[in-house]
């Protein structure tokens, strides 16, 4: 019975180990993937019938982690999401979750990865030109 349990444990862990990427994410890769996900998520919320009412007056969110203006853009967007006054919007789970996740990315970029990130451009207008998906 003992051998059977070990064999079962090993057979369940082998596929997990093989599917795991062998390098841990760096600060840069984590920030890059979060920014892409948040950009896509905000665009999806603008198109979703349940949240489009809340997101209609919100600016497009395009996060380029190489642009120094991204921190200002995130602060502004977080304050807009937190400032939603319409009762229906203020309690919409997806909109609130977007704001919380955006705040996490902001903290991650400003505190955790502060020395690892290098801004290569300073073009605030480029963040207003939404590339679309």
From TrEMBL:
InterPro entries associated with the record: CYTL1
Signal peptide span per the entry?
A: 1-19
Tell whether Signal is among the UniProt keywords: yes
Q: Tell me which Gene Ontology terms the entry assigns under biological process.
A: positive regulation of transcription by RNA polymerase II
One Pfam annotation, family name?
Answer: CYTL1
Which keywords does UniProt give here?
Answer: Signal
Carries keyword Acyltransferase?
Answer: no
- In Swiss-Prot or TrEMBL terms, this protein is called Cytokine-like protein 1
């Amino acid at each position: 019975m003992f051998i059977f349990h070990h064999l079962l444990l090993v057979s369940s862990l082998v596929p997990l180990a093989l599917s795991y990427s062998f390098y841990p994410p760096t600060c840069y890769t984590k920030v890059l993937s979060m920014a892409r996900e948040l950009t896509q998520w905000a665009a999806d919320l603008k198109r979703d019938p349940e949240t489009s009412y809340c997101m209609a007056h919100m600016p497009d969110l395009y996060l380029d982690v190489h642009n120094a203006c991204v921190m200002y853009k995130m602060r502004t967007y977080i304050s807009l999401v937190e400032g939603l006054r319409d009762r229906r919007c203020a309690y919409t789970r997806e909109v609130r979750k977007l704001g919380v996740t955006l705040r996490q990315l902001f903290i991650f970029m400003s505190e955790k990865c502060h020395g690892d990130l290098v801004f290569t451009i300073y073009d605030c207008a480029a963040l207003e030109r939404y590339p679309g998906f």
